[in-house]
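input
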Amino acid sequence: MHRDPNCVFCKIVDGELPCYKVDENEKFIAILDIAQFVQGHTLVIPKEHAAFIWDLPNIEEYFEFIHSLGNHYRNLGYKYVDTLTLGRMVNHAHVHLLPHNDNDENWNKVQKEVDNLQVNEGSKPSDEKLSETLEMFKKF
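output
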């Protein structure tokens, strides 16, 4: 299994650094994020080193593991389990799970900013620009 000796997540997987383990199987580990955007903020990390989730050879299994953990949080009574794939502070693929009931003030501020980006008429591109963008990105 490929490991990066300088990667903090690889060191956690190898037991060289401590963590607060939430779940684990032979290929993935879920740990509490030390930042805790919300209580229960979890990082889901493949044990094999990959820079991005799109580099994982077993991405389907990875998302099955994430799906199982997300449903576990919902079964604990959380209405929402927000999922983020952002984060480049650690160059190791990871997904953030944020269980909440829409009552965390700090997380609601972040969500409001994202919502504002989505509804801001001034930031919406013209139909012409969207057509250009579509030509750049469409797969078929």
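quick obs: The chain is about 35% helix and 20% strand.
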